[in-house]
Design brief:
CATH topology of the largest domain in chain A: Glutaredoxin
Number of strands of chain C: 13
Low-confidence stretches of chain A: none
Structural class of chain A: alpha+beta
Number of helices of chain C: 8
Helix content of chain C: 10-25%
Chains: A alpha+beta (177), B alpha/beta (452), C alpha+beta (334)
CATH architecture of the largest domain in chain C: 2-Layer Sandwich
Largest interface: A-B, 47 and 61 residues
Shape of chain C: globular
Oligomer: heterotrimer
Radius of gyration of chain C: 22 Å
Radius of gyration of chain A: 18 Å
Number of domains of chain A: 2
Order of helices and strands of chain A: HHHHEHHEEEH
Chain lengths: 177, 452, 334
């Protein structure tokens, strides 16, 4: 059996986590749950495993079940492993009007996966999401913290190539350009 | 009519930088309020301005502030609702991204008026990059002493923090937001008590939309009376409208309330007309939750008056022939849009976003989506339409929070105004198999009058 | 004291009393049904929407009606408030809607459900439901989760009343289960394989209004109307020790807490009493339990059976004495 990696924030992330927790009144540190879960998801391979959630619970000094309840409520937290690039395509009405369904079909064909699946090489996961507030620049998708808007199929192909070349996992914590 | 307030400096490069913002009159309201006004005087100006909540409900902001309980020794909180998630709405993102300091200035002035010493901006998690823009702007404000202890040398101190959500439409509901801010599931609370009495961590709390708060400094600068002169009737001031769908120029526009809808859709200053020269079929005027209106009713009221972009004019005729200004999420449908598929799309959204706490919404939203999916894919029954209308009635008004209503209104209104199209779907399953059938052969209603 | 009128009946209650509690004070048919509210669990209620009522006058000071039906369990009365429950046809229609919503995804597996006969949803459906379902989609299913050897979880039957979560929060040292996911796939779960096991966890069974949480030690042993409820107590260091023993013959099939006429437990009991003391010598039997609420259990209550038996004995004696049996004397009524 492979040795389990100890789940622990890097020193830098821990510092961020502790400062986030100080944003709330004494005893209300549970309020830092969502920021900490984002931090954890970004640091631990883009998803929240049980040990990761237990770690967040220990930092917040709450019961693990409180973290499970919250993490499973919000759509941004992945409770199962995902590919390096999680492509979240908006398919709500304004995006649909401007070709979101076709974009999803194009991606499914191009990546040879269905919505909800991950490519065999673990590079891409495809997900449809509800309105991301980018209706005026539809169709669009989110990957990491970035919005990619007014997507055509050609632009999408270019983007996929870029992601592949980079080969990194974009996260919500990526700094601004 | 092209009065601009919130976006008056939108053309200026680098406005997100505090120096640029200040050079262009930024933070003048903080100085004016903190140094020359009392908190109550600020509230009074907001009351006089007639400013109404820009998140969707349209409740007078000044009145909401005046409900805030002020028990001695208990902290009070101002929370900015930046959880913009209503389909068709992206104005807050635009404002925060381009002009973050206007929100921060609004937070300082509003917190001063409410007596809040710590305030939070709760932003939807998907807007993480906007959160970073806000964090940077907040850091700038701290650096120059506009946040923190003794702002501008006065005895007013304020800490301002941003918190991301985790992906849940329901957190746009103020008590769902408060629960989420406390690190819990975003289940709306049962009211009473209201947040003004028992809010974040049990303390009195005001929750206001981004656009509402960003308007406050302008009101302080120009006075409430002057602001109230802008707009029309009880729809005072300007409103940011997010325009999307089948139009030539989608985007965020600031309009003076009272602008004719027709001008907004067809003028080059705004939407620039329907894309590809097609004709207008329908509009959802205030975000997906408000009733849809067919072309003839969005351009003119049932009485034949021109429809205006205002709270009153858009709701003229009630739900029978009117709608709501809502969040200002203006989605335009041309003749090529299938209203059945649109409604299925909306109902899928509400099904996905129901928190699951109360039974009518939890069970009803899923039920409606399933029926609509059947109809859309050519497996509907004629009785389905009356069933849908009845389910709407059973949800509406019977849930903990307005999400139930928001899920029911589009269904009821789509069937009210586009029943023939639904019947066509049910009766012609072969013809509607292609999801793009409407593009190839637009559906024409018998009752359709000739819109302008 | 606040004066409140419910379905035309006036009563006076302390300020802060909810409409539901005021209705319960009046009693009878006008009391709204409840599925999630539980008076001994703080913060319960408001979710299921079955107890909604129409407020036709908010208060004497502001007699305007409230625009929407309100959850009576969470709405405090105001002085001079006028409330309509069974006298409002549209309210009853709205409640029928709520009942329909609660039932569309319910498996209706009463024939194999241990809760049948003491199920609030069954009673609610009987009182307010329709004969036919308008829902023709597959019903919701969940992955089965094992939460230990004492409590059986059947998520398909759950109506998400949150009572068991509140029990775990308010009575037990550490909650390990909760509500996961959201919307119509929200579920009661421990998320990870974990037993819900502590001194008071068994109370989750008693507070569950449906058959989502049942007693594993009683599973499939008997229909509840074939077991005889008997009040009993024992000296217990962990709880009051006041329980109901459910006898099958002389064997104790089940131990539960005592419930009042609203089907609510006032004195929660510990797991020792509930699961570990199934021998009659462990208990001081007080006597047969009268089930106060309308229940199939009281329909076949053995008190009546005993009465019947006594009557038959009496008539047999008359026959033996050569007298004519007095048929008119036999009554099934208590």
């Amino acid at each position: 059996m492979a040795e389990q990696k100890e789940i622990k924030f890097s020193e830098e992330s821990l510092k961020v986590a502790l400062s986030l927790m100080r944003r709330y009144p004494v005893g209300k540190q549970k309020s830092a749950m969502l920021p900490l879960l984002h931090l954890a998801q970004a640091e631990f391979d883009g998803w929240l495993s049980v040990p990761v959630m237990n770690y967040v619970a220990s930092l917040l000094e709450i019961k693990p079940v409180e973290v499970y309840e919250v993490a499973s409520f919000y759509s941004m937290f992945n409770l199962k492993p995902v590919g390096k690039c999680l492509l979240e395509v908006c398919h709500t009405s304004p995006c649909w009007l401007n070709g979101a369904d076709e974009l999803v079909q194009h991606l499914q064909k191009k990546l040879n996966i269905k919505v909800g699946e991950t490519t065999a090489d673990g590079m891409f996961s495809l997900k449809t999401v509800e309105c991301l507030g980018s209706c005026g620049t539809a169709p669009m998708l989110q990957c990491g913290s970035k919005y990619y808007e007014k997507l055509t199929h050609d632009k999408m192909d270019e983007l996929l190539d870029q992601f592949k070349q980079k080969g990194e996992r974009p996260t919500y914590l990526d700094p601004l350009q | 009519m092209a009065r601009k307030i919130l976006l008056v400096n939108d053309h200026i490069e680098g406005l997100a930088n505090i120096d640029v913002y200040r050079r262009n009159g930024g933070y003048a309201a903080v100085e004016k309020a903190l140094k020359t006004m009392t908190p109550d005087a600020v509230t009074e100006e907001v009351k006089k301005s007639g400013l109404r909540g820009r998140g969707g409900a349209g409740f007078p902001a000044g009145m909401k502030w005046s409900f805030l309980a002020k028990p001695p020794g208990v902290p009070r909180y101002l929370v900015c609702n930046a959880d913009e998630s209503e389909p068709g709405t992206f104005k807050d993102r635009y404002l925060m991204e381009r002009n973050p300091h206007s929100l921060i200035e609004g937070m300082i002035v509003s917190s001063f008026a409410l007596g809040a010493r710590t305030s939070y901006i709760y932003i939807r998690g998907e807007y993480y990059y906007v959160l970073q823009i806000l964090e940077k702007a907040i850091a700038e404000a701290y650096e120059v002493g506009l946040l923190g202890k003794n702002i501008m040398g006065t005895d007013f101190s304020l800490d301002l923090y941003v918190q991301p959500g985790g992906g849940a439409y329901i957190c746009g509901e103020e008590t769902g937001l408060i629960e989420s801010l406390e690190g819990k599931r975003g289940n709306p609370r049962i009211k009473p008590p209201f947040p003004a009495v028992v809010g974040v961590w049990g303390c009195p709390t005001v929750v206001n939309n981004v656009e509402t708060i960003a308007a406050v400094p302008h009101i302080v600068n120009m006075t409430g009376d002057e602001y109230a002169k802008i707009g029309i009737g009880r729809s005072t001031g300007t409103k940011l409208i997010s325009a999307s769908g089948h139009i030539n120029k989608p985007g965020v526009y600031e309009i003076e309330l009272g602008l004719p809808v027709e001008e907004f859709i067809y003028s080059d200053a705004y939407c620039g007309g329907i894309s590809e020269g097609r004709s207008l079929k329908a509009v959802v005027a205030g975000g997906s939750s408000v009733p849809v209106l067919p072309a003839e009713l969005i351009l003119k009221t049932a009485a034949g008056e021109p429809r205006l972009m205002s709270y009153e004019s858009l709701s003229d005729g009630g739900f029978a022939t009117g709608t709501m200004l809502g969040s200002g999420g203006f989605i335009v449908y041309s003749e090529t849009a299938c209203m059945v598929r649109n409604l299925w799309n909306f109902s899928r959204f509400y099904h996905h976003e129901s928190c699951g706490q109360c039974s009518p919404c939890r069970e009803g939203t899923g039920w409606m989506e399933k029926i609509l999916h059947n109809i859309e894919s050519g497996h509907g029954k004629v009785t389905d339409l009356d069933l849908l209308v009845d389910i709407c009635k059973k949800i509406e008004g019977n849930t903990i929070c307005p999400l139930g209503d928001a899920a029911a209104w589009p269904v009821a209104s789509h069937i009210r105004h586009f029943r023939e199209e639904f019947e066509y779907h049910i009766n012609n399953p072969e013809k509607v198999k292609d999801p793009r059938h409407c593009e190839k052969q637009p559906f024409v209603r018998k009752a359709q009058s000739n819109p302008a | 004291m606040f004066k409140v009128t419910i379905d035309g009946i006036e009563t006076e209650v302390e300020p802060g009393t909810t409409i539901l509690q005021a209705a319960r004070k009046i009693g009878g048919e006008i009391v709204p049904p409840t599925m999630c509210y539980y008076s001994s669990l703080e913060g319960s209620g408001g979710y299921c929407r079955t107890c909604i009522v129409k407020v036709s006058a908010g208060s004497a000071k502001d007699p305007r009606p409230m625009p929407k039906p309100v959850a009576s369990c969470r709405t405090p009365v105001q002085d001079g408030m006028v409330v309509q429950n069974i006298t409002s046809p549209e309210l009853l229609e709205a409640r029928a809607g709520v009942v329909e919503f609660l039932l569309i995804n319910h498996p209706l597996d009463c024939p194999v459900c241990d809760q049948a006969g003491e199920c609030d949803l069954q009673n609610l459906g009987f009182a307010h439901g329709k004969e036919e379902s308008r829902y023709d989609f597959p019903r919701r299913v969940f992955e089965k989760k094992d939460i230990g050897n004492k409590i059986q979880l059947h998520m398909t039957r759950c109506i998400l009343c949150y009572r068991c979560v509140k029990v775990a929060d308010q009575l037990t040292p550490g909650r390990v289960h909760g509500v996961m996911n959201r919307g119509d796939v929200a579920e009661i779960s421990t998320y990870i394989e974990q037993a819900v096991d502590n001194d008071m966890s068994g109370n989750m069974i008693d507070v569950c209004p449906v058959g989502a949480l049942t007693d594993k030690t009683f599973r499939f042993k008997s229909r509840v109307w074939f077991v005889n409820p008997t009040d009993a107590h024992r000296n217990c260091t962990k709880c009051s020790g006041n329980v109901v023993l459910w006898f099958h013959g002389t064997e104790i099939y089940r131990v539960s807490a005592r419930k009042n006429e609203w089907n609510e437990v006032k004195e929660f009991i510990c797991n020792d009493c509930r699961f570990e003391n199934k021998k009659i010598e462990n208990w001081v039997v007080e006597g047969p339990r009268k089930i106060e609420r309308k229940s199939v259990i009281s329909q076949n209550h053995y008190e009546q059976y005993n009465q019947l038996k006594a009557q038959i004995e009496k008539q047999r004696a008359r026959l033996a004495n050569g007298e004519t049996p007095d048929i008119g004397d036999i009554s099934l009524r208590t």
